[in-house]
Amino acid sequence: MTSSTLILLPGLMCDADVWMPLYPQLPTRHTPWVPDYGLNNSLTAMAQLVLQQAPADRFALAGHSMGGRVALEVVRLAPQRVTRLALLDTGHLPRPGGEAGAQEASKRHALLHIAQTQGVRAMAQTWVQGMVHPDRLMDVVLIEAIVGMFAHKSADVFACQIEALLARPDASDVLRTLTLPTLLLCGAQDSWSPPAQHEAMRALAPHAVLDVVADAGHMTPMEQPEAVAQSLSRWLRDGSDLGSSI
Known about the structure:
Elements: E1 4-9, E2 30-33, H1 43-53, E3 59-64, H2 66-77, E4 82-88, H3 98-118, H4 120-127, H5 140-150, H6 155-166, H7 172-177, E5 182-187, H8 195-204, E6 209-213, H9 220-223, H10 225-237
Parallel strand pairs: 1-2, 1-3, 3-4, 4-5, 5-6
């Protein structure tokens, strides 16, 4: 059977480790590839890097968190190269104006200050408290996997990615034009990118389907890898029998 490329885009301060738990359960005919965004400080630049370095002309594309926003920019730039799209625990709107936008910037810069003064690991230990299902906060193996992954990156990378997220574009127009098989997925307890946010995305792309993963926060690929792999496997197979609560 001919192998096809599956590009997996990691989120803020994440790398291939966020996807690794899924690999044993994904169809073997799809070869995964995970990029490194380096010091790119815009989502468009990250998307351009993906398109330049992608190991195939056409590919299935999945993005988690910030990676979902990068995926939408890839589709904006080169829709003809993407065969199907999965957006996990992500969003599509720009940073809001007014007080809400100022508060977001303040919270992100506070985390950056911790990374710059105390180290990325210390920042990650603070960040992770709101990013997993509350019941998993005492799961030492999971928390260390997440914190250790963040520690692979530098505070300079964190600064660049925060800059990119604060300047994120509105991707509503991309969602409206989607005609390829599209999966939306999030954790039921994702407080950062909640199910309601994904319902709003589905309203713009009504042919897309939404899977809500039970007992998971924002880090669904690491919190519930079996459920996420099942959903992605269905999406990779034919994209026609999705849409359930797992």
